[in-house]
Amino acid sequence: MKTRQKTHLIIFIALAIALNYVGSNIALFLKLPIYLDMVGSLLIAILFGPWLGALTAILSALLSWLTTDIFAIYYAPVAIVTVLLAGFMFRKKAELKRLAILTIPLSLIGTLISASITVVLFKGITSSGSSLLAQIFHAMGMNLTTSLIIVQILTDYLDRLVSLTLVFVLIKQLKDQLNFQLLKEK
């Protein structure tokens, strides 16, 4: 890889980390029942490959953990697995029409990991808006693990669907912009 391409890739990864950071903090501070912490990592995974997406997810989790969300580092495995799967699933073709169906396996695998982390490490209480929903279900008499899994299934699916939709819109905009720039240079 040429030095210029490496520089562009590093800048793109830095922007993706910033996108993850801003998204996760919006969700955290507004106590949204979605997380928005993987948009940049998913973008990198789909455009440049799953391994770079996973690296972006790790760096994003470290940044959030060090600055605003002490729980972020513990959920890095969720982002890593999700981004790796998405990178392999959507690498060849990023299309919106089958996204609702293809998001199901991504969210279910993440749900198993995140619900396990939440139950085992944190006894059901984290900084996310989904934790608040799970606590409400638990207070209504539902088993804590069951309430966490139900909430996680719903919120993980919604988060992945919103995040991937944003990624595909960004990819389309990037392609349109790049094509426009190439036409202007000729």
From TrEMBL:
Alphabetical UniProt keywords: Membrane, Transmembrane, Transmembrane helix
Ranges that cross the membrane: 6-30, 42-66, 72-90, 99-122, 134-154
Keyword Transmembrane helix on entry: yes
Pfam families per record: ECF_trnsprt
InterPro entries, alphabetized: ECF_trnsprt_substrate-spec
The protein, known as: Energy-coupling factor transport system substrate-specific component
Organism encoding this protein: Streptococcus porcorum
